[in-house]
Design goal:
With 375 residues, the chain is an alpha/beta fold. The chain has 13 helices and 14 strands. It is globular and about 65 Å long. It starts with a strand and ends with a helix.
Length: 375
């Protein structure tokens, strides 16, 4: 267990159970956050059992009875279900923290009280408060009259996962729904016939039109997977986490110039990913490795652009907003093109805590400590 001493007056004992794809846990006690190793994917029952045993052994050895148990808001995560059961066992409060907020708060140095900052979260899958699948998010966090206010001020354009989780394993399913936004049916099939027969395509196309078992997502990972399949760097499969997106990064060179298209919808900024794919199709004859880099740069610059627009539009009193008040997190921010761009804008990330799901439990505790500084 790694130890991190934090500056807080809170004396409650807190257990955080993380998310699912990279199982980990954290415990707060007496001014110290204990953060565990990565136990791996919790869908593997043996790994989940190992996590549970490690948690119970740690609590026993340290003589800790948690007052608060924190989990993700995803109702079907094993850690969420077990956390609810554990909260009843220990008669503890069960607190749930949205996945991407935990990502952002994992990267903050624990120095309350919160003043004002922005967070950019990019990953593959995270359950949103609107029950859609998030993964390309921008948050504004500020303290007003001793209350911390968190607003989702922007995200990637929602696209449709045909077949829900099946579209994670077959990224071309998402590609069908995106290309359908601006191409006719025949032209969509021309780009997909390498992956599907005519009959298979017809079934998926009709499923999209009928909106049957279709889920909307703002996921960065899913968009990069679809780009990788379109450009031919990945097959229509996902053999490991972020696999197609990793192949896209590995085959990238110098990006073309492409201005992010940002629209406002009910005061929320939407980075248009359909516009990205229109550019890719229009320039499909050009250097594919440069197109690969363009896609990654487009997303990074677009999400940062939402922050920049918000800073310019909503100054807070006499408060000056510094570029270092922007934090980024999520597994996709390990991407070198994306992280390099954000760092060039002086956005920062914690060097000690993983940006991906292996840092989620730390972020869950940090969220509580920083949003309840006078608990």
């Amino acid at each position: 267990m790694n130890k991190y001493r934090v500056n807080t007056k809170i004396n409650k004992k807190i257990l955080a159970l993380g998310a699912e794809s990279a199982g980990n846990f954290s415990v707060f006690d007496n001014g110290v956050i204990f953060h565990s190793e990565d136990f791996g994917d919790m869908q593997d029952e043996k790994k989940f059992i190992k996590l549970k045993k490690s948690i119970l052994l740690f609590l026993k050895n340290e003589n800790i009875i948690p007052d608060i148990i924190v989990t993700d808001i995803h109702p079907h995560y094993k850690t969420t279900i077990w956390g609810e059961r554990m909260s009843k066992k220990f008669k503890a409060e069960h607190l749930q923290v949205q996945h991407h907020l935990a990502h952002i708060f994992s990267q903050l140095e624990n120095k309350p009280p919160i003043n004002y900052f922005f967070g950019i979260a990019m990953d593959g899958t995270g359950y949103g408060i609107d029950k859609k699948i998030w993964g390309g998010e921008v948050f504004e966090v500020k303290s007003e009259k001793s209350e911390v206010r968190i607003n989702r001020i922007g995200h990637l354009e929602n696209q449709v996962l045909i077949g829900g989780e099946l579209a994670i394993r077959e990224p071309a399913r998402l590609l069908i729904s995106i290309l359908n936004n601006f191409l006719n049916k025949k032209d969509v099939f021309d780009y997909l016939k390498i992956y599907y027969t005519k009959n298979e395509f017809e079934l998926l196309y009709n499923q999209l039109k009928q909106n049957f078992n279709c889920v909307e997502t703002s996921s960065t990972g899913r968009i990069l997977d679809a780009v990788s399949v379109l450009l031919g760097f990945s097959k229509n499969e996902r053999n490991f986490k972020h696999g197609p997106a990793y192949l896209l990064e590995e085959n990238s060179t110098k990006p073309y110039s492409l201005k992010p298209q940002i629209e406002k919808n009910n005061d929320i900024c939407i980075l248009k990913t359909t516009s990205l794919f229109e550019f890719l199709i229009k320039n499909f004859h050009r250097d594919k490795k440069r197109l690969a880099a363009t896609a990654q740069q487009y997303i990074a610059s677009g999400l940062y652009g939402i922050v920049a627009e918000s800073i310019n539009a909503k100054p807070v009193g006499n408060q000056k907003i510094y570029k270092s008040d922007i934090f980024f997190a999520g597994g996709i921010t390990d991407n070198k093109i994306i992280s390099s761009y954000l760092r060039s804008k002086q956005a920062t990330a914690n060097k000690k805590i993983p940006r991906g799901d292996a840092g989620i439990s730390f972020g869950q505790i940090n969220y509580y400590l920083l949003t309840n500084p006078r608990d």
